[in-house]
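Notes to self, DNA topoisomerase 1:
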Amino acid sequence: MANLVIVESPSKAKTIQKYLGQGYKVAASVGHIRDLPAAKLSVDVKHDFAPKYAIVKGKEKLVKELKALVEKADRVYLATDPDREGEAISWHLATVLGLDMNDKNRVKFNEINRSGVEKGMANPEKIDLDLVDAQQARRILDRLVGYKLSPFVSQKIRRGLSAGRVQSVALRLIVDREEEIRAFRPEEYWSIDAKFLAPSSRRAFSAAFAGDETGKVEIRTEAQANAVLSRLENAAYTVASVKKGTRRRQPAPPFTTSTLQQEASRKLGFQGKRTMRIAQELYEGVEVEGYGAMGLITYMRTDSLRISEESRAAGNAFIEATYGRNYLPEKPRYYKSRANAQDGHEAIRPTVPSLTPEQAKASLSADQYKLYALIWKRFMASLMANCVQDTVRAEIHGANAADAAAGRYCLFTAAGYTVRFDGYTKVYVAGTDEEEEDESALPALTAGDALKLKDLGGNQHFTQPPARYTEASLVKKLEETGVGRPSTYVSIVSTITGREYVTREQKQLKPTELGEAVTKLLKEQFPNIVNVKFTANMENDLDRVEHGEVDYVAMLHAFYDGFDEELKKAKEKTQGMKIQLQEDVTDIPCEKCGRMMVVKTGRYGKFLACPGYPECKNTKPLVVETAARCPKCGGRVIQKKSKRGYTFYGCDHYPDCNFMTWDVPTDETCPQCGKSLFKRRGGLIVCEDEACGYSRKAERKRRKKDEAEA
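result:
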């Protein structure tokens, strides 16, 4: 065997093997082969934070196989992902496999197609030790904060909790927003809306009251609204002025990691984890009919807006051939990345711009097709000409005879546009989190035109509190404030939801009582840990380590020495303190002392305990009852957990009765035998008594709109 190439994933290995052909063997490390063991801190704080790495459990056989391949190979190439994490994986591989750190054996593929692989193989480099140090610094920082802070939080609130360097800041943002919402006091305001008919049209158009002869007027109360409406009794309406203009709308830039997650959430309803999993599949390679195995998109962890001139030329050629030369701008459009963006990779784009989503559709899963279409359309639109719109803004005066004679009037405004040239919108229009003004074309209007009033009325409104973060808007906020990096956004959200610090209500992220308690404790005792600017500055320091400007050991000392002192003071200050959550208090009295028992978490899960500990040490299992009765013996059906944490239901007379089911108990009874009914996946309501066999489809929940019409 002449050459060995080691990548991270088996699917990536399969794609690259097809491009390299004979003379190469492509193997996969399946991610990290070495890491900090989870059982202990694994960082020697007293000796400059020396990490104590070990082979990842379960990968001993794989490491042995890789060593055997290395021994047979004439040359070894390390082709892990082109980022900090990938560089660290290559370094660990080189260390464990005994490769020379001075050898130019590191290759990077920004895109996994023939040209991308050939370009990477033709330009091998040394492992970038600055990049490795930056990854090690992040890993050690996160380990120090997590392993030192988590026990403190667990001791003060509840067993098994965690606190992290970046997750705690993200949680604070969500909690702060919830506090803003609670503190918000709605303010009343009114609008006066009218519909008019122009002399040249039978279609009514909308206009809104804006003021009067004195200038802009804001209406705060119903009385003020009625006063304006009374002025408009028997009023005549005339077009006072018509202003025409031209508006040019520019396309959004190609995707970065964060904007891809945001847009996939808005347009496809994907959570970040799902988006990045599918993007990884598209990057690593898919068998496409007529093309073979190929990566469909460039590397998906990036915050750069740069694209290669080669891809620009290919995209331009496709646009000109498909839509015409007029759909290209006069000059190429270049987007500027944000100040602290890493420019090591291009923006996310299709590797072969001429491969349309429709051409690839038959070779892709439904999710892969949707995401590829989103990326392809966004990239193509970013190269295209502006959308040109003709705008019209009309001012309308309304006045009764007395007001008109005195030069007084009420002012209404109407705005609209027509599309002169669709430009990039022929392919794609970016989504937004904010509601856009609803504009449509206005009829032909001329100053002096008399208008016919079709409808006029006052409408009450109230100011709205700030919206809770969605996953997309949280990622946007993290990016704007410099907290986290493209590779960490998904894990941040996964951690705070998985730890039950935050729940999802539809798409919104709402903090739980537990999440708020953790944030309050950290704000009081460790203000820097949950400080957005402090965390952003630390991210900048990690970037400086990556560029060789800062020694990572010195950076760790600068953080940890102060943090360790802060931790000691917090432990002294909160000695004996225990935060009791309302959500943990039950209505079950303690049989020994009468206090209401609380939910505790132990090694084997949740249980009930008396809050009077240590005076009263009473404990008992936590039983979650349902409204259903056991179809076998008539006992209570209770909620249980499997060894893997999945919820199922069983009889409380176990082991005397062995009834169990994955179906969810309801409070309904069977019309045939009178036993409890259960809801099964697929929308069926069933009787669990085999002798009965009753089943029916579950009723669809009625929407509020349906209920209102009923």
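- The radius of gyration is 32 Å.
- Residues 184 and 472 are 23 Å apart (CA to CA).
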